[in-house]
Amino acid sequence: MFANFRPAICYEELVGASSLKPELISGLDILIIRELTGDIYFGQPRGRRVATDGHFPGAEEAFDTMRYSRPEIERIAHVAFQAARKRSKKVTSVDKANVLETFQFWKDVVTEVHKEYPDVALDHMYVDNAAMQLVKEPKKFDVVVTGNMFGDILSDEASMLTGSIGMLPSASLNSKNQGLYEPSHGSAPDIAGKGIANPLATILSAAMMLRFSLNQAQSADRIETAVKSVLASGLRTVDIWSEGTQKVSTREMGEAVVKAIAKTTKS
Fold first, then answer.
1. The whole model's pTM is what?
2. How many other C-beta atoms can be found within 10 angstroms of the C-beta atom of residue 136?
3. For position 30, what pLDDT does the model report?
4. Residue-level pLDDT at 267
5. Residue 96 catalytic?
6. Which of 39, 95, 142, 152 is the catalytic position?
7. Which of 159, 172, 189, 190 could bridge to 1 as Cys pair (CB 3.0-4.6 Å)?
């Protein structure tokens, strides 16, 4: 499962929950595609040792290795361009090619793969600028493709554009569109059992599973429509609550979505 899909969508009902101005994030719909099996998180060698060179020979040091092979970059680039074809046909590849040889190679390979997708626009952006543009002009992005570490950081930054990381589903897919679906925030053990977790990212992850792995787009649409309906009714878990809306528990929010789905079935 090398391709991590993390959509950042700002529902109109939650525009006020974002820390950014409404005009910056109203209508926001970004798809961040993070390469999931390579980069500095998994590169070898890694460990701790006594330094034999550098500025402090003889001192204890730790080290990690950033590396990407051509096939790893090619396959995630194909995923990004194919996803963009179903959206607004624009890919932004995020790298740090100005200082990292690994990401100069990334940039070169993505540029080569792009030749197979002449109908999709491609631009390259350094990761520091991408982090800035996500809060300055987030709607300029469509599909963002990047490495494991940069994708980890940028997708969490993008979550706050939507009002809460509790709104972000994710999918980790292999080459056959089989995958693992989970909310971007993980299991959130710090608030387990308190009834305050937002279940919508988990529910929306199920919608992604129906769409990407099970080819049931209509069922996915029903779930997403139900979520929008519940938000429009004013129900909010604590992470997205604001004055004038109704604060509900995890269970109450989940049950409200179930009822909304049932209504679409009857209609």
1. 0.88
2. 11
3. 95
4. 54
5. yes
6. 152
7. 172
pLDDT cut 90: percent of the chain above it: 76
**Given 29, 64, 108, 156, which residue is catalytic?**
156
* 181 catalytically annotated: no
Under a CB-based contact definition with an 8 Å cutoff, are residues 144 and 92 in contact? yes
Provide the pairing of β-strand 121-126 with 29-35.
Answer: unpaired
Note if 117 is an active site residue: no
Lowest mean pLDDT among 18-22, 104-108, 172-176: 18-22
Residue 164 near residue 198 (C-beta atoms within 8 A): yes
The H or E element that residue 160 is part of is helix 148-161
Q: Which of 29, 41, 228, 239 is catalytic?
A: 41
205, 181 Cβ separation under 8 angstroms: yes
**For residues 77 and 46, what is the distance between their CA atoms, to the nearest angstrom?**
27
Domains in the chain, ordered, with CATH? 1-43+65-163 (3.40.718.10), 188-267 (no CATH)
Q: What is the pLDDT of residues 238-266, one digit of tens each?
A: 988 888 899 999 999 999 999 999 987 66
Question: Would you list the DSSP string of 144-155?
Answer: EEE-HHHHHHHH
pLDDT higher than 90, residue 74: yes
Q: Using 50, 70 and 90 to split pLDDT, how confident is the model at 156?
A: confident
Mean pLDDT of the 229-241 span = 92
- 53 catalytic? Reply is no
